[in-house]
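This part of the workshop introduces the protein records we will be handling. An example says more than a description, so a record of this kind follows:
>
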Amino acid sequence: MKAIAIAILLLGFSGAVSAATLNVGDQAPCITLQQLDSTGTMTDVSTCAATMQGKKIVLDFFATWCGFCIENMPNWEALSAKYSSKAEFRIMGLDEDPAELSKYFAGKDLANYSVVFDSKLVSAEPFGIEGIPTTVVIGTDGKIQFIHVGTFETPEQLKELEDILNN
């Protein structure tokens, strides 16, 4: 049943379908957007390799209207707390209304991750996002190391991501 729901979600998110699909090993697109950090400050944030300061970047393409995205949040929060010294965790908020995204994250502890506002889907197309949630890990060399569409439903799926973060 979940597989059918994910397929419907993927078809329903056709606004961000890109002809250019990224694969593991490809150079990550270099984009800059605004993020809300733990102090409540909006700052520029980039996916460019030159700005990574020796850390990996973990992107979670997310929307507040996406039930699977909300379901995935406990995994995201646990991983970001455990691996924040090795990677920067960013939620790529694809809500059309930034106020909805701000409202959802109001009062949440943003110490281990930041919320990036992308109401115009600037990031979705270059990253080839065809469904959400989608998790992408960018290595310190700026290359894609991991792509996962959907929630992390099994311990094996989470272990695969943790292995990437540990290496």
Notes: Confidence is low (pLDDT under 50) at residues 1-19.
